[in-house]
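Thread title: Can someone regenerate the structure for this chain?

I was given the following input by a collaborator and told the matching structure tokens would be attached. They weren't. Posting the sequence so someone can regenerate them.
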Amino acid sequence: MTETRVAILAVVVSEANSVEELNRILHEYSSYIIGRMGIPYSAKRINLISVAVDAPLDTISSLAGKIGKLPGVTAKAAYSNVVTVIEENV
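Best answer:
Regenerated them for you:
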């Protein structure tokens, strides 16, 4: 059995050169992404992105870790109590 959890990733981008790689990573995990919203904050020269996901805990951690390793990018996950158990057919 696999458990998935609904979570929100908060992403702050201060380095424009990392945006292309960030989008590549998000595309890699697109099957888990419920939706995303980006807000440019030009006065501070940053972009704020929220990404809603429904995925196994290790997948959420992996996604946040890959994003957080990008230069000028930080990512934090906030987990909900909404858990879905998926029975795997063997």
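The chain is about 25% helix and 50% strand.
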